[in-house]
Specification:
Layout (H helix, E strand, L loop, with lengths): L2 H16 L9 H6 L15 H5 L7 H4 L7 E5 L5 H10 L4 E6 L2 H14 L4 E5 L12 E7 L8 H11 E14 L5 H11 L6 E2 H11 L2 E10 L4 E9 L7 E5 L5 H13 L12 H6 L6 E6 L5 E9 L9 E8 L8 H15 L4 E6 L4 H9 L3 E12 L2 E11 L6
Parallel strand pairs: 1-2, 1-4, 2-3, 4-5, 5-6, 12-13
Antiparallel strand pairs: 5-8, 7-8, 9-10, 10-11, 11-12, 13-15, 14-15
Helix pairs in contact: 1-6, 7-9
InterPro entries: Acyl_CoA_acyltransferase (IPR016181), Arsenite_MeTrfase-like (IPR026669), GNAT_dom (IPR000182), Methyltranfer_dom (IPR025714), SAM-dependent_MTases_sf (IPR029063)
Pfam family, one: Methyltransf_31
Keywords: Acyltransferase, S-adenosyl-L-methionine, Transferase
């Protein structure tokens, strides 16, 4: 269905719920036996009957989001408000839960349900999940229940979720996914059973879009099996953590000048590399892997304050999970935790990418870099003595590496 058709469809369901009818969006057997609707929840006591009647989800994202008292939560596609109301319990009176839905009738229904439940720490917004009407860094957790699969632009949805999350914020949704690309017949059969398969992503596609948006620690856990390779799933990810006023995101081509300036400033210290002149942007990108590149930026000015990137160690398949990395921080922003935050995010991204060894060479005189790497789990494996001549001096290089405890074990 097109976007307008989806909104009209769910508005009609909401109007039915407003008139006291129980609504479903899939085969009745799937609705009760497959964990759809209120069957997906373990505790719905004290919730208004209207919220239960309008529940169309495929799981219980509230149970997996690990909500804590005082947090701010956003529910994408909040429908009749059941997940908003359950989240409001978890975050308590000092927390806030936003519910966002494109259907005016659903927003009306959710507000009525919240009023009936006597819940005051919730706010319902009308808008699309592809253009969330909240400022950046506004929420601690993004949840959703069988809605993202309906979007025609899932990359925009996940980019928006990343934007509104604070650093360290969590993404935890229930959704419908497939384990392989479905042919038209299989997709039609599944659509008839559970009603929300048409736009579902494969597990790998979901993971890739989350990584492209900037998320790390990505997991997709299959739950109910609906046949034909279609599953309900719990999808979780994290926005990299960093200090106030900062953000870690994927490196972009528009960052080129600032990235290379920071690179050159590091080289000018004489302690960063045997190189003395930063490469061109074309040379930089050609020698580094396209995915494992991140920058730390000032959220007010957008200025790049540091970066980390990886290079392939060898083209031989046996080294597919081994990378060499570089991390550089603006000379005016060192000792502020930026390097550590970048490396921590980078390590998590490497785990997601199936990297089992991260390695680098560091001059022994660069004690700050050695300490930083040891702090995030790297070990010194040896020293290559007088390995290269730098500014007329033969220099040693300390080899450091981090072996993944989960990949390649």
């Amino acid at each position: 269905m097109a976007s307008d058709e989806i909104i009209d469809h769910y508005s009609a369901l909401a109007r039915s719920a407003l008139h006291g009818q129980r609504i479903t969006d899939c085969d009745p057997v799937a609705f009760t036996g497959g964990g759809f609707g209120p069957a997906g929840y373990d505790d719905t006591t004290a919730l208004p009957d209207g919220a239960l009647r309008a529940s169309l989800g495929c799981g219980n994202p509230v149970a997996v989001a690990e909500l804590r008292a005082g947090e701010t939560v956003l529910d994408l596609g909040s429908g009749g408000g059941i997940d908003v109301l359950l989240s409001a319990r978890r975050v308590g009176p000092y927390g806030t839960v936003f519910g966002l839905d494109a259907s005016p009738a659903m927003v009306e229904l959710a507000r009525r349900n919240a009023e009936q439940a006597g819940v005051t720490n919730v706010r319902f917004l009308q808008g699309t999940i592809e253009a969330i009407p909240l400022p950046g860094h506004a929420v601690d957790v993004v949840i959703s229940n069988c809605v993202i699969n309906l979007s025609g632009d899932k990359a925009a949805v996940l980019a928006e979720a990343f934007r509104v999350l604070r650093p360290g914020g969590r993404f935890g949704v229930s959704d419908v996914v497939t384990t392989q690309v479905l042919d038209e017949q299989a997709r039609h059969r599944a659509e008839e059973r559970i009603g929300c398969v048409a736009g579902s992503l494969t597990v790998q596609e979901y993971r890739e879009l989350l990584v492209e948006a900037g998320f790390v620690a990505v997991t997709v856990t299959l739950t109910a099996d609906h046949g034909d390779g279609v599953h309900s799933a719990i999808v979780q990810a994290v926005k990299p953590a960093i200090g106030p006023g900062l953000e870690i995101r994927p490196m972009r081509e528009s960052d080129a000048a600032e990235v290379l300036a920071i690179y050159q400033a590091g080289l000018d210290t004489g302690q960063a590399s045997f190189e003395t002149v930063a490469p061109s942007w074309e040379g930089f990108t050609a020698s580094r892997l396209p995915r494992l590149r991140y920058v730390a930026v000032d959220t007010d000015s957008g200025e790049v304050l540091g970066w980390v990137a990886a290079s392939q160690v060898s083209a031989r398949s046996v080294y597919a999970g081994v990378v060499e990395h570089s991390v550089y921080v603006h000379p005016g922003c060192q000792a502020h935790g930026i390097g550590r935050a970048l490396l921590t995010a980078f390590v998590a991204a490497c785990e997601d990418a199936g990297v089992w060894t991260i390695q680098s060479g560091i001059f022994p005189e660069n004690t700050a870099s050695l300490a930083l790497h040891q702090a995030v789990g790297f070990r010194m494996v040896g020293t290559r003595e007088r390995v290269g001549c730098h500014h007329g001096v033969w220099r040693d290089v300390v080899m450091v590496e981090r072996r993944s405890p989960v990949v390649g074990t």
